[in-house]
Amino acid sequence: MTDRIIGAEVIVTSPGRNYVTLKLQTADGLVGYGDATVNGRELAVASYLRDHINPLLVGIDPAQIEDTWQYLYRGAYWRRGPITMAAISAVDLAVWDIKGKAAGMPVYQLLGGAVRDRILAYTHASAWELPELLDTVDARRQDGFRAVRAQSGVPGLETVYGVHRDAHDYEPASRGTAPVVESWDTDAYLRHAPSVLTAVREHVGPELALLHDAHHRLTPQQAARLGKELEPADLFWLEDVTPAENQDALRLVRQHTTTPLAIGEVFNTIYDCKDLITEQLIDFIRVAAAHAGGISHLRKIFALADVYQVRAAPHGPSDVSPVSFGASVHLGLSTHNFAIQEYMGYDPLAHEVFPHSWSFSDGYLHPGEAPGLGVEVDEQLAAKFPYEPAYLPVARTLDGAMTDW
Ligand code: GCO
Ligand code: MG
Q: How far is ligand 1, taken at its centre, from the CA of residue 274, in Å?
């Protein structure tokens, strides 16, 4: 029996980049943390929590996780959407954290216990030119990774998603009061990407799991062509080929290629992906614990996916905080159809502000044995890094029209 919630607070901090964290406190002194970060729209979720949710949480029983989720989801009347669902996710993660701490158990134990010893992770390798990209992939393998996402520049373009011209690290959001404008030309990309990925495959040999992200930019026909042309590169997956709103597109893509397809980082409920799963139009579902309703809702999505041999592979960029990243790793250890976890990595300051029991070694992740989610917040340190306005880029085609970033 856990005591009721007596305090709910939002912590906005920027150790390297902005994060929104919900902190819940119980009458018996337990503290639970949840992540509500939506990259480039952070303060909207902070306000949703502060102004509309936190006042409702004081007095509730945090042990009633599912009821709390239903209360916030059904009770809003205005359902779904990234801001609402990020706020619900944060509450869900915080009450799972409290339940684990009250039980003295890591959350993966509450979810049914371990079904594997460790979770395969993939990271990013990016460089503008192919020789540097091959070096970067090699460096990631030296770091222990057995799965790597490769992104390169495109001749004729100044800026491209997933890669900075002069750096081998990639962080999409930039601080400032307006988004950076990137350029895009699908034809130039389609002429170049297959040769780059095939060259990476030749360089690394057959075993390394190789991934690539098209970041929602292609038409169904272009996506089908790319999938087909990438078959010799034997990708682990091709990600987000078409904009997430056009789910019918995946039908056409599927008919033309055996390249495995992954989608879902911008989805926020099971309703965004149920047809993709039940019609077996995708191979991997990439919903994140911070954005799609927390552990409680991800479990439902993954259970549906399991029936159709679709595997779970949550989004794990630097813009989901170490809190929800930890939650994802607990799910990974306890979910049978969990395939792989994206691990883009964090600024060293983020590791300090959010000390965590989860760990990476030899290409694999483990949530650790600390009770709850195993991620704490050093609030004194967090206070030293106040929010800084930052935006994701936008993109325009060469004729100047807005396009999908
Ligand atoms: C990924 C993603 C990210 C997103 C970012 C937006 O696969 O990791 O596409 O790089 O662009 O999370 O905030
Ligand atoms: Mg992606």
A: 22
